[in-house]
Structures are given as structure tokens and as C-alpha cells.
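Final report, closing paragraph on structural work. Over the funding period we assembled a curated collection of sequence-structure pairs, and we close with a single example.
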Amino acid sequence: MVAERASTRRRNRDAATAERLAGWLRDYRSFEGIPDELFDRSGIPRDYWLDFLGDVAEYSEEEFRGRFSLATRHIRDTGVSYRIYGEENERSWPLNPLPLILPEAEWAQIAEGVEQRANLMEALLADIYGNAALVRDGVLPAAALTGSNDFLRAMRGVKPVGGRYLQTYAADLGRGPDGRWWVLDDRAQAPSGAGYALENRLILSRAYPNLYNRMNVHRLAPFFDDLRKGLAAAADRADPRICLMTPGPYSETYFEQAHLARYLGFLLVEGGDLIVRDGKVYVRTISGLKRADVILRRVDADFIDPLELNGASQLGTPGLLEAIRDGGVAMANMPGSGVLESKSLLGFLPVLCRRLLGEELKMPNVATWWCGQPRERAHVEGKLDTLAIASAFGAVDPGGLFPQPRLLSDLSPAEAADFRQRFIDRPFDFVGQEVAHLSTTPVLRDGRLEAAPFVVRVYATATPDGMRIMPGGFARISDRADARAISMGQGARTADVWVVGDAPVPRVTLLGTQEDVKVRRVTGMLPSRAAENLFWLGRYLERAESTLRLIRSLCTSLMDAEAGIHTTGETLERVERLLIDGGALDKDAAGERALDAARDALHDVDASGSVIRLVGMARRAGASMRERLSADFWALLVRLETRLVEGRTTVRTEVDALEQVESALQIIAALSGLAQENMNRTAGWRFLDTGRRIERGINICRCTHVLARSGATIDDLDLLLDLADSQITYRARYLIGLALVPVRDMVMLDPFNTRALAFQLVTLKQHLALLPALVDDGMLEPHARILLALATQIETGDAASLDATAIQGFETELMRLSDAIAARYFLQGANAVPTIKLAGLA
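Its predicted structure, as stored:
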């Protein structure tokens, strides 16, 4: 069927398309003796690749660039990224415009082999942390396990909640020279990449929607549905709370973790978000402590509990191991499962498969010899110049020479000498492996089709009905023309994996059908950390906006225009004073040229209150709970920071500075509009808006104190109205011109002016009234008491009696309110308290 359809489409192609496709195939050069995905062993292009490439060849150069630029724009705007370990900044996701295509018949064999291997790993863990029969009977040397840092003695005899040690498993596969698929590495600690596979699919299916549907590409959604059901089945409640435990925003794969949490509906938590009480695990939320039933962990086991494991860890939760032992939480994967990633085990797997499953191993791994045994050590010693050397236990590599398998010929003389001495002293720390040569797949580079080596990661997840395999995966394609598996690593690109079939594929999503979904209107719970980040995101954006308005006044003071007259002389000095008080300018900058002051306030990265610093802090706050921000909001936030960074060298005149200020203000206005119109009115939105309201109130108090004091000039009052965005309203209300008392009333006491202090307090009362209370005793909590007293003062206040002392008092109370909100809702350390409900049922 596939071949017939492809043949028909080839006959119907026009001459230009046929010539372009022929040129691609004619210039394509695969590696000698290495299997290729495009051409079969006889040198004939495979039909499914011809089907795909023939359609791509129909696109003009401009249309193809447009299609993939749409995909790359999605990567940029939604922040699809990764981080190299040790780097602070994220890197944009490197996606290949062509997928890796595999027929479903071949994929069935891959899935069968990966499923068997996942079952073998589960049985192996059950023995390692159970009765240890393999070690007792001499089938597996104890040193092959205990040499690994990932072997956790504390987990011996611990039965996992739900009955499974491995909820997720992944295998890195490569096609060897004989055309068979080989396992290069096992991933059992906390397999990463499934979220990136999902994102790759989203991007490419948008770039080639017709091709994607016509080629009957198998959907990924059923796998993720199985993952969610498998995790839910491990809990002891019918409607469990499932958390995805992340190392935090500086993790190399934080984007993927946030994307998975959002897609699957899990709660993204860090170690500090969790607390152990009475053998159970709870999430710190704005409503108190809420039970965590299942944790899908992406934190390495050694870091999850600083009380029992790595005492220096700041990524874990004290007492978490004890809760696991007590059966108080289901953990996927169980701590200690990372021992399966040790290369020391690879040579024993065929025997272990026969022993544990009663079957022959269907998918072999790269031939590996662990040097902890005399015969194997002798074999490796005799072939040191031809075998790849790797650490037997991953992280246990004191010299740091073998994060990946390496040939001795790739080492410097000093490194080779160091290795040989270490090999003599501790041979059991090393394995020797045959050098695997990978097959190649087509990539498009500079309009040419080229062959590139690849590795594909295939995922398995446990369900009540057995293991399920993702029909696709996460492919890494080397940018180097070196087909050795040992050369894969940094510099690789990624690709979507299409498993294509003959029959149309059902369009399955994670959305339930009308029959199996119970209608609910609960808003979900908000972790304290997320609430805090939303609160400060609102404050940073509002602070950046107020600073931009002050800079705009500086810029207009340089222009020969009526709008700039009010920012001259003493009034201009007061603008600079406000910028200095806000940390946007150094105090020594007072009196410098207005253009220089504007440039510094915009772009000085060393100034705590500069716009570029404030926007950077807003972006970091947003990055810490990216799963709660829409793609549009995140894209605008990233665009705002990018424009400020790019504009640091382009401010040469006041016009340049003003253009940047206006552009930034427009983006912030768009962010505010998205928050108001696109965010559900849940607690998260309320904390975001609460942060904005408190910051706006503090800012208007500071501006009023400086510009509307006794003896204020017309220029001062005019500037205050401009900063409060109240010029039009004032002039429509008062025909007599500017006067001190009406201006004070409008910016401080008017509850109908959205920029006035009174309006901020009215809005804050509405927000806090709808946030949860911890104790239902009818008494006001401290933050509510502060707000009520302040709001009463404003509601009963008189503009004529407002003086500097009163205005400063309002500012002080707003800061007290901020501290009280933090103490109540941003639960950290010992101040985390349960709700009035029984904590075990929460």
C-alpha cells in the first residue's frame, strides 16, 4: 500500500520537483559499510523516504524556509530550550527540519526488544533490593553493583508503593553495521527527553501538516495517557495528586519538565515545595499542606534527601526516604534504580535475562567487558588500543576522563599515562566496549541532503496491563561526520521520530470523551513557591513600567516640544532623585546629562533598579513556574528582555532612548492585557495582580511624596499626573488648571482612578478576600488586618490634610503588607502548617 501510493505520487510530480529530488539523491553520500536510513542495502531509496522527500521537494526554497522558520519561531517564542551543565544561560533548541522515519513493521521489533528489556530491568531491581539471589548464587558479582554511587543500601528491603520499581525506562539505540538495532545505554534513574520528543512532534506536525497526516504517523498521546494512568494506579487514592519533582530552573532540561507537567496536568514541584510529616509527603500550598500521593522524580536519587543521602543537596526534601520506606508516597522511579545505568552490568544481561525472564535477550547491547573480573580484564588489556574505555559506574570517574566512552588514541599522552596507572590500581572502575558505528539518516544542510549519524532514545512506561512503548522517540543527530557512537554528545541536533503505517491512525489526545469526564470547576491548588514567583513577577514588571515612565520624562526633557517643558530645572532633578531612590541610577550620576542618565537607567546591568535588571528578574521569576504561563505571555516576556539586551549599544540620541522606552512600555501593556484577559481568575492570577497592585501603590506614594509636597510647582504636578497616567482624566474633571489638593486626591484617594492608591487597595481587598484562610475562626489574619487599617485611612482621608509624613506612612504600611503576605502564603521552612482539614485527607 505505501509503495503503491508513493509510486503514484512520483508519477504525478512535475519536472522541476522531480529534478530537485533527483539532485538531492544524486548528491547524497552515505558512509561506506554503514547502514543508511534513506537507502537500503542495494542502494535503492526507501519508499517512505521518497514519499516524504518528494513532497518536500515540491516546496519552493522560499516556502520551505517559511515553513521551517515558522517552526523555529515557535521554538524562540515559546522558549523551547536546554542548558549545558554549568552554564547559566539557556540555549535554543536545535531541531532538524527532517524527521527520522521508520516503518511500523520495524518499529514493532524495536518495541518488542525495549519492552523485554524494561521488564528485565524491573525484575533485576526487584532482586537487587529484595532477596539478592543473583549475588548469593554467584550469577552477578556484588562489586558490579556496590561500586556504583546509585546503589542505595537504604533501599534494601523497601517495597515500592504500587509494586513497581521502574515506572519509566528508556534505551538509547543505534543501528549497527549488520543493520540490527543495538542498545547503547540504559536510562533508569530519571529518563529525560520525552517532553522534548513531544515538543519536536508539535513543531514538525505544524511544519508539514498534510504530510504528517497522509503518512499515517503514529500519535504520541496514547503513550502519555498510559504514563498518567500508570502513575495514578500506583497511588492509594482514587483521585491522586501527582507531582513532577524538578531540580529547578537551572536544570539542563527544565523546559522539558515544565512542558511535561503542563501537558500531563501534574504539579511541578521542587524539593523545597515538599515537606514530610508523619511518614507522608505534603506540598506547601497557599492553603496549607496538601498530600502528595505520587512523585515522578527528575532529581537524581543522591540529591532527593539531604538527611540520609547527600547532606550538601539543596534539591531534595529532608525525610523523603523515610516516607518512601513507610509507604507514604509512591516514587517513580524508585531511588536506587540508577544502578541499572552502570556499564558494569551490560556484559551480564544475556545471562540475567535467561535467569529472570526465561528468555533470550532480544535486543543486544554493545559488547562490553567489565574489568572487575580477571578474564575480562585480560581481554581489555590485550585490546586497549582498539576498544573504547568507559567508566564502569558513571559518576565514579575520579579523573573525569570518561564522561563518555573514549579511545586511548583520543587522549593526550599525559591523560593516557594517567589512565594506565588508574587501570592498574583500580581496574574494576572501567569497562572496555567495542566501538559501535552508527547508521545514518538524511539531514538538510544548505539546501543539500547529507547523511548524519544518529542515536534514538525509546521510552517505556508501566501500566496495570504491562509495559507500553512510545511509538516514536527522541533522536539525536551528530553534527560531526563521524559514525562512532562515542562521538555523540554536545553539538548534536535533535529530530522527531515518525513511525509510519499503512492504515490511518486514530486521532487520540489526552482530552477525555464526553462519557468519561466528570464536570468540575475547582481551580486547582497553588504551591507556595509558584505563588511567590507570580507575586514577584507582578512586582518586577510594575517596577519596570514605573521606571520606564520616569525615563520617558527624561527623554522628553531633551526635546523641543511642549510635552517636555515640565521636566526642566528642579523638576528634572526630582526625576533623577526618584530614579536614584529606585536603584536605577547611581547617586553619583545626579546632574549628569539627561541622555546619559536615561541610558544608564535603561541598560546598566549593575544597577539593581535599572529596567534591564528588573526585566531580567521578572523573566527569572517566570522561568521558575513556566508551566503556569501561557506561550504568548512567555514569548512577550522573552521578547522584552531580548530587545533591551539588543538595544544596549544603540542608544545614541534621546530619540533612540525614547523609542526603546515606548517599545518596552507597549510590551508591558500587552503582558498586562494578557494577564487580565487570558488568565483564569484563580489564585495564581490574584497573586500576580496583588504584586502589581502593591508595587503600584508604593510607587505612587514615592512619586507623590517627591512631586506633590507643599510648595510643589506646576511642572511637578504636571509630571506626577503624567507618571500616574491621569492627565486626560484630570483635565476633563477640572477646568481651573493644576492645583495641589485635586492632584493629590486624584492620585492618592480616588477609588475610580486605576492608578490611584485607593484603587490599588480596593482591588487588594477583593483579592485577599478570595484567597484561602488557614483557620476558620472568624478572625482576621495579620495581612488582612494591615490592609483593612490602611484602606480605612485612605477611604476616610482628606487630600488637603495629606502631608509627607502621612504619605510615607502609607508606603511603610504597603511594605508591611507585602511582608505579611509573604509570611502567610509563601510557606518556607518550619512555618508550613496544615489546613483545618485532616492533613492525611487533604
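DSSP finds 28 helices and 21 strands in the chain. The CA atoms of residues 80 and 227 lie 22 Å apart. We thank the funder for supporting this effort.
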